[in-house]
Amino acid sequence: MEIEGYLMPDELYYEKDHYWVRDEGEFLVMGMDDFAQKLAGKIVFVQLPEPGKRLEAGKRFAKVESGKWLGKINAPVSGELAAVNEELEENPGLVNEDCYGKGWMYRIRPDDKAGLARLIHGPEAVRAWLTADIAKFAKP
Amino acid sequence: MDLYDLGRVPALDSQLLYHALADLGREGLFLLSPATPYVCVGYHQDAAREVDLAFCRERGIPVYRREVGGGAVYLDGGQVFFQLVLRRDDPRIPASRDAFYRRFLEPVVRVYRRMGVAAEYKPVNDIVAGARKVSGSGVGEIGEGLVFVGNVILDFDYRTMARVLNVPDEKFRDKVFKTLEENLSTVGRELGSERAAAWTPERVRGLLAEEFARLVGPLVPREVDPALRAKVEALRPVFASESWLLARRGRGRGREIRIRSGLHLLRRVHKAKGGLLRADFALLEGKLQEVSLSGDFFCYPPDGVERLAETLEGALPAEAASRIEDFLARQGIEIPGVAAADWAALFTP
């Protein structure tokens, strides 16, 4: 689904700070959504913590830097960090080039899938949330 | 909001205080200068790669890492720092980052103007006087807080700034020095030393307090309290440790030094079959400038590589590959073991 120029794939779950989560069975994969990567501009650094790290839903576990801003990445669900996208160490710009594909960030082994229910999912919910955020971010 | 008008504070404390306040989930504005010079690297930088640590050690210049992004900077008493700590849920924070800088740099622009410097806000986060940058700033999300840090540069030690950086060779260092001097200005240079002398750090802190109060509301002066002091002391061993400083959070190819927004100096290297290739160049508003190519390859005719460099002037990095290919095909230049794609690799964005 495209909303005002932002690509938001229907099958994904979204965290309110604009990170997406894809359900891949045993694992969840996450990355930055199209709205956030366009807003951030060129991503110059993505922190890649050691796999095995314990994640708590809503708590910071990594940082991401665009030229002007050092932001936090919160865990969308509780679980364990299973893998990180090593490519981003050499080329964090992959987040800008292909945020849902080659620019994926982390693979998480969730404690359970119940956490997904707290994320934003489904065309209607995603449209309502994104449209509100677009208006909010347009404010001077 | 609380105002901590602290004057000169020990170098490390000038970093610890705002980190501590953010960690405590409190808001406040710090105005201060470091009592002694130091170097500070950005959160993700590889300190050993960016900074000449041996030189700094020898000269007794400490090197610290901040939880804010950006590049290595040299801080001393010639600069007055503002460090505004807000809670992330503070309604005064605009949703968009560009809007944040526009709003929160306004007080700083007004301070410069009140001093007589024709300063202007330049998106995203620069303040310029004419073509030169006069103030630097950045934002980091720390704990539950959002910190906005920046400076008013009364005087700047260009020579030492260029010296503390790790550079590939002295020619590159000289280039950094000259480019800094051409693109970064100070209150002293803008006003002339006589007029600038009236603006002591204390008066500048006074102006900053007045102008920030217009944006965030009344500022209440206060001392560093025991809770804040305790948090500072808890953070001190971490920020003073080698492991925090030398943590390697990112890698890159070659060297890149940001002079100001829209102007970067780069050295790139690439290993081709026929030898090592090196490119030194500036990226000015996204275009290649002052390209210089060197390395340990063999080229016939000998000036071929120099002419190749000339053809790249003004090109976008994305155009480099086609310009290189055209030029080498047309001119019949022979560089055994080095293909057009090898040269192009030096310029890929």
Structure description:
The complex is a heterodimer of chains A (140) and B (349). By secondary structure, chain A is α+β, with helices and mostly antiparallel strands. Chain A is 22% helix and 36% strand. Chain A has helices spanning 34-40, 87-90, 94-97, 123-138, and strands at residues 2-3, 6-7, 13-15, 19-24, 27-32, 43-46, 54-55, 60-66, 69-74, 79-84, 106-110, 120-121. In chain A, the strands form 3 sheets. A 7-stranded antiparallel beta sheet of chain A has the order 7-10-11-5-4-3-12. In chain A, strands 6-8-9 form a 3-stranded antiparallel beta sheet. A two-stranded antiparallel ribbon of chain A has the order 1-2. The longest helix of chain A is centred in the last third of the chain and has 16 residues, at 123-138. Chain A is globular. The mean pLDDT of chain A is 93. Chain B is α+β, with helices and mostly antiparallel strands and 349 residues long. Chain B has 2 domains: 2-246, BirA Bifunctional Protein, domain 2; 262-345, Enolase-like, domain 1, CATH 3.30.390.50. Chain B has helices at residues 13-23, 47-50, 53-59, 97-104, 106-115, 158-164, 170-183, 187-191, 193-196, 201-216, 226-239, 242-246, 304-311, 317-331, 340-345; strands spanning 2-9, 28-34, 38-41, 63-65, 73-75, 79-87, 119-122, 126-129, 132-135, 137-142, 145-153, 220-221, 255-260, 263-272, 275-284, 287-295. Chain B has a 6-stranded mixed beta sheet, with helices on both faces. A 4-stranded antiparallel beta sheet of chain B has the order 13-14-15-16. In chain B, helix 1 (13-23) links the parallel strand 1 (2-9) and strand 2 (28-34). Chain B is elongated. Strand 9 of chain A pairs parallel with strand 10 (137-142) of chain B, so a sheet runs across the interface.
